[in-house]
Amino acid sequence: MGTARMRSPLPLLLTPGNTTMPGMPPQKTADAPVSSGLLGPDRNWHLGAGLMTLATVVAFTIWAFAHTGSGANSFLLVLGVAFGLFMAFNIGGNDVANSFGTSVGAGTLTMKQALVVAAVFEVSGAVLAGGSVTETVRSGIVDIDAMHVDPLSFALIMMAALLGAAVWLLLATKMGWPVSTTHAIIGGIVGAAVTTGAVTGTGGLGMVQWGEIGQIAISWVLSPLLGGLSAYLLFGAIKRHILAPSARAIALGSRGFDDAEDDDEDEDDEDDDPRGHVAGYERVTELQQAAFAESAALDLTPGGPGAELAEQAAHLSKKDRKAARKIERKAAYHALEKRVPPLAAGAAVLLAAMLVFKGLKNVGLDISLGGGILMLVMIALGVWMATTVFARALKKQSISRATFIMFSWMQVFTACAFAFSHGANDIANAVGPFAAVLDVLRTGAISEEAAVPTAVLAAFGIALVSGLWFVGRKVIHTVGTGLTAMHPSSGFAAELAAATVVLLASVLGLPVSSTHILIGAVLGVGIVNHAANWKLMRPIALAWIITLPAAAGIGAVVVLVLRAIF
């Protein structure tokens, strides 16, 4: 007597809110958890994050008083600390949430896991590699020599910029719009500086280094284009060379099932029945649309491989179909074993290069070019071998599950790397202006350069994580499921492409927008899958346009209020 075998049900039609894949359980979306009792089911996590944030605020305030000395204006220092941490909090709610949207939307990480990853890698990126970009933001926007203002006025400009940018980011986050924190802080600085110059008669538009802003504006345009192009090319190659065999094998499965035991079915079926195979292909269209092999690797557009497969399958006998499926299954596992390891090794080299050549240098471990290259070669070989062994171990799994697991692991590492790169680059949007305020309060003068203490980077990194947890869910939902359906393979491609661009920008000291880069990468993936949600991009693009003037307007009002107080 044969043993009954369980089969995976036919997957549901993929929608932006449904990330179910063949052979896999339904994945949770990035929606906020359902409230249950006081603070909901995540009460302990809420309390833990809240206590962590409170402890950080208290400890950092005490440190700030000790750092600036007894001569500093206490009320001004407290406001500066509050504005700086509030800005970092909202960077976490918008930019960090934007960074983890693909991972959470793909079901690779839960919201809690994203919080833990962010806590480690965002703070590490800020502390180890967040230095060079900070100077660009602090002194590269406003011409200090042209600003004939006293140190107090300069400090008030930076404080107003922090609050103006933070307020706009909070509003955008509540709407679920992933906007640029770089746009926001630059807008805040420009608005506050121009207003101060106009009020005091010490300057005006000439206070702003428009050439620097022009260069940054060019990078804003290039950011989504580079992110989209790199993701389009990378995911397109993954789709053609790795996912397509998996997709064909699943589409050739009897009755739409993806099961390794499908080839061992009893041969009692009526192979000669001219309609014996029809039931398996009446739903081929649904299979194609259900992101089999997690990427909709075959589309049904006329002349496309999906349409060609469906047409050929309709004329196959059951025996021929099973023979064809065995060939495709073999090709699919071969792709996972032979093509994924070099891809993973290349990704590891790109992501490790930032740490080897920049992060370690900032902590006093200056590695030579030759030594760094040797380390990268060792990392590449180690990842190549480990991924090969892992792929071989997945041969007993169904095609879709093997593909899901392989790319899920790879996406975990890209998510960590993107968190590190984000902490290295975008923490400057809060740390830069705050470092200027802290330096003025400590020295009583405007310095050309201001050291950024490690305590500032660490405290602001923790504020990033807090913002991700408390207000980041709507942005995660927008990026993870709203713009296009995300799965581990597409999420991996988007994150790797975006992280590469962001890391290079951080090395060059250019404060580009990681938001624009990642959104461009997500849309690049959507274009490959013919599933980009351009309607949702309309309000997002509008928010991008108004971010700089909105933050500038708020910063202008805030600086007037601060000048009235002080």
From TrEMBL:
Assigned protein family: Belongs to the inorganic phosphate transporter (PiT) (TC 2.A.20) family.
Stated name of the protein: Phosphate transporter
Localization terms from the record: Membrane
Record region (Disordered): 1-35, 257-277
Biological process annotations from GO: phosphate ion transmembrane transport
Record's GO cellular component terms: membrane
Record's compositionally biased regions (Acidic residues): 259-273
Organism: Brachybacterium ginsengisoli
